[in-house]
Amino acid sequence: MLRETLNQALKDAMKAKDAPRLATLRLILAALKDRDIAARTSGDDRAGIPDTDILALLQTMMKQRRESITLYEQGGRQDLADKEKAEIAVIESFLPKQLSEAEVEAAARGAIAEAGAQGIKDMGKVMAILKTRYAGQMDFAKAAAILKSQLS
After folding, report:
1. pTM over 0.70
2. pLDDT tens-digit readout, 30-57
3. Which of 31-40, 51-60, 73-82, 141-150 ranks highest by mean pLDDT?
4. Are residues 120 and 87 part of one domain?
5. Among 141, 69, 138, 71, which Cα is nearest to 102's?
6. Residue 112, burial from CB neighbour count under 10 angstroms (0-12, 13-18, 19+)
7. CATH of residue 61
8. pLDDT tens digits along 114-130
9. Is the domain of 35 the same as that of 77?
10. 140-151 and 101-115 are packed helices; what angle lies between their axes, rounded to 10 degrees?
11. Same domain, 87 and 110
């Protein structure tokens, strides 16, 4: 389970006195705890969010950091951009291998065939299939652009 892997990595970073990795892991676990709290609907739900949601959380965190890097570099703050790049490296270590553009295109074609999609109006069905199968493995913004071109 991904949650246990993150907790173990936190302990390992503490033992190794790796401050940058430790700080990033604490950020990840804090965001995870926030999502767990938000997901609770009853007092007895202690399991937390599933791994697919954790992967989505990690991808969101990476996207936020990439946007920050762009802004920091535009503002001439390379020191902060470097810090964000280090955080991305830590977050990426917990994500599965990302699919290449060719693999995303192939997955999109397969999902279109499976959903029987005829046009742009069926894009939601196809995206749902991709999100269930490839959570954490692809950038869904890029996948959406590929889908639009294939469905047009």
Report:
1. yes
2. 999 998 888 887 555 567 788 888 888 9
3. 73-82
4. no
5. 138
6. buried
7. 1.10.1510.10
8. 888 888 888 888 888 88
9. yes
10. 60
11. no
Same domain, 126 and 79: no
Q: State how far the Cα of 121 lies from the Cα of 151, in Å rounded to an integer.
A: 9
> How far apart (Å, rounded) are the C-alpha atoms in residues 80 and 94?
22
* Residues whose CB falls within 8 Å of the CB of residue 83, separated by 6 or more in sequence, listed in order: 20
35 Cβ contact list (under 8 Å, min separation 6) = 49, 53, 57
**Cβ contact 39:48 at 8 Å:** yes
Q: Which amino acid is at 97?
A: K
- What is the residue range of 107's domain? 101-151
Report the distance separating Cα 47 and Cα 27, nearest Å.
20
The CATH number assigned to the domain holding 113 equals: 1.10.10.410
For residue 104, give the nearest of 132, 63, 64, 145 by alpha carbon: 145
Place of tokens 């959903």: 115
Q: Which pair of tokens denotes residue 114?
A: 């499976």
Amino acid at 5: T
Spatial CA neighbour of 22 closest among 40, 7, 1: 7
